[in-house]
């Protein structure tokens, strides 16, 4: 990290100290991300830690959750490198194991995922793409309301509310734990009055409401039929609206059941669902250890509904 001493750096130094005891390996990710993304990243990450994990006890729990989340992901990724497939699992099985599993969601999944958005290079690059290539359009068009589907940690909803002070949002998820976490995350920034968290599966129970901006980050690979979700997202979007949709590729996690090996597979589904690709961003998590070894990657797309 740089030489300036600020409140953000104090917070990140505290984080590094807490990582000493329970997630030592994660210290390098903090230093690498600080070097790569600079002071804006430091301020953004530290603000989230200060607001959402305000006490040392809460911050230590988050660090432990992140440590377990990374260890679990690495173990699954090693197996994936050999099998080149995700272990067979139905959506209902993944939902029971993860989305409705109170202990797993609170202790590991949600804090782990939230910290990964800042500490995994391709995750933070995806956030930069969202801030640089999606949110400015909402601002220019004076969009007043957005929807997010599969809110998880709520970070994308919170960033949208933070970027545009007049914006209101609705967050849909099937997991009461994700909804509770998201509501607390949004409230910790003072945005609760502009946001509603709704328990609703937009595939099975389409919403009558239409939004000019629809966000869905890292949900497609969680489904048996991602095209059904893409059609559900199209149904939520107003004819003159835009969508920000992402997919994780070659990334083994407890709840990833649909394997995307190549970005073109996602782009083909987008086409099938009646959506038009405006532009996209793609990044690998890291360089492969050996040529040909699959590495986790992120594809983020800005889409419009076809007539
Ligand atoms: C990996 S998280 C998504 C990441 C999240 N957008 C974030 O930025 O932190 C997956 C989320 O999708 C939710 N989910 C799974 N199936 C869903 C569905 N059919 N409709 C809405 N949410 C769903 C899960 O409950 C979980 O909260």
Automatic annotation (TrEMBL):
GO terms for biological process: methylation. Residues 148-243 form the Methyltransferase type domain. It comes from the Bacteria. Keywords: Methyltransferase, S-adenosyl-L-methionine, Transferase. The keyword Phosphoprotein does not apply. One of its GO terms (molecular function) is methyltransferase activity. The keyword Methyltransferase applies. It holds the Pfam family Methyltransf_12. This is Methyltransferase family protein. It comes from Roseateles toxinivorans.
């Amino acid at each position: 990290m740089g030489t300036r001493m600020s409140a953000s750096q104090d917070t990140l130094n505290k984080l590094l100290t807490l990582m000493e005891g329970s997630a030592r390996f994660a210290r390098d990710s903090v230093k690498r991300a600080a070097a790569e993304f600079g002071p804006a990243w430091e301020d953004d990450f530290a603000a989230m830690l200060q607001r959402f994990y305000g006490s040392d006890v809460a911050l230590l729990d988050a660090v432990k959750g992140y440590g377990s989340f990374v260890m679990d992901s690495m173990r699954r990724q090693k197996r994936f490198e050999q099998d080149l497939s995700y272990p067979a699992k139905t959506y209902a099985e993944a939902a029971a194991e993860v989305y409705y599993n109170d202990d797993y969601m609170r202790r590991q999944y949600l804090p782990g995922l939230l910290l990964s958005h800042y500490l995994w290079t391709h995750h933070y690059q995806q956030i930069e793409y969202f801030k640089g290539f999606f949110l400015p359009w909402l601002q220019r068009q004076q969009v007043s309301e957005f929807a997010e589907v599969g809110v998880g940690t709520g970070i994308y909803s919170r960033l949208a509310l933070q970027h545009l002070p007049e914006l209101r949002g609705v967050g849909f998820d099937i997991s009461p734990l994700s909804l509770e976490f998201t509501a607390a995350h949004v409230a910790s920034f003072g945005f609760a009055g502009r946001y509603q968290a709704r328990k609703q599966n937009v595939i099975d129970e389409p919403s009558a409401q239409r939004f000019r901006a629809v966000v869905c980050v890292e949900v497609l690979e969680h489904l048996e039929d991602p095209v059904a979700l893409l059609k559900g997202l199209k149904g939520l979007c107003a004819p003159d609206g835009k969508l920000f949709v992402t997919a994780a590729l070659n990334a083994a996690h407890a709840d990833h059941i649909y394997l995307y090996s190549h970005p073109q597979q996602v782009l083909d589904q987008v086409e099938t669902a009646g959506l038009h690709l405006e532009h996209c961003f793609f990044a690998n998590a890291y360089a492969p250890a050996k040529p040909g070894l699959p590495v986790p990657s992120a594809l983020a797309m800005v889409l419009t509904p076809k007539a």
